[in-house]
TrEMBL record:
Cofactor(s), by name: Mn(2+); Mg(2+); Ca(2+)
UniProt catalytic activity: a di-trans,poly-cis-dolichyl phosphate + GDP-alpha-D-mannose = a di-trans,poly-cis-dolichyl beta-D-mannosyl phosphate + GDP
Organism, as annotated: Rhodonia placenta
Major location (coarse): membrane
Keyword set includes Endoplasmic reticulum: yes
Listed name of the protein: Dolichol-phosphate mannosyltransferase subunit 1
Described purpose of this protein according to its UniProt entry: Transfers mannose from GDP-mannose to dolichol monophosphate to form dolichol phosphate mannose (Dol-P-Man) which is the mannosyl donor in pathways leading to N-glycosylation, glycosyl phosphatidylinositol membrane anchoring, and O-mannosylation of proteins.
Residues spanning the membrane: 236-264
Protein's GO biological process: dolichol-linked oligosaccharide biosynthetic process; GPI anchor biosynthetic process; protein O-linked glycosylation via mannose
Amino acid sequence: MPAVEYTVVVPAYREAGNLRPLVTRIFAALARIDSPVPAPLVEVIIVDDNSRDGSEEVVETLQREGYNVRIIVRTTERGLSSAVVRGFQEAQGDNMLCMDADLQHPPEYVPAMLAALSPSKQFVLGTRYGGGAGAVDEGWPLYRRVISGGARVLALPLTAASDPMSGFFGVRKESFLKARNLNSQGFKIALDMLVKAQIPSHAIAEVPFAFGLRSVGESKLTGKVMLRYLTQLLELYWYAYSGVVAFVFLLLIALIILFIRWLWYIGEEPMITVPISRGRGAGH
């Protein structure tokens, strides 16, 4: 069997119902005659935060069917960022991709994402903006569009990447190993890695993709998650710039929180019970 060159890491929490379609669609895309990456060179790692929902049994069945997939069940750690980092640490491939388990990151884009990584392109980002990928916020309520757009705008001073919020991204192992003090509690690990691994703009590849819809389970967008993101941004501004800039940013965050609370009250549905949204695979 050829050596693994590519690893797909999938953080998951209570996503048992999505694991079979996710894995089979990934390998079906890789098996296509026009795939730039051969399926035998790819492994899939599920990093599960002790869901106890049958995820282990699903993976075991897939393994018996010949799919190169394995699962890591964490019992003492929780969180998206730390799950992604754990998966990258366990990866056999030098080209590593992170994607959600909820099928909002279409598995059919995996070959193109993996193929975009190279010694000159250390980071690949699945972007929802440009390239004719489709409207990222189609069907979303007003407050959801404002939150998504606002989160992206706030990250612009930190990276030239068009969509560091998507969560569908890949990195070469040498760049991952250069990143120091990654925020294991942060909400957007891609943004954290772009800043702390000091990925220059010319080393970032972008692959436009159309957002899929969550198939099984619920979105985990909550006020607590958004607060964690704002806290992470503050830490990154402090890391990348200076205390003065971070203080100004803190004031801006306060205004944003007040605005979000206002949108929450006038919204037609509560923010914490959005049935279909961006969501993330690990679900914390």
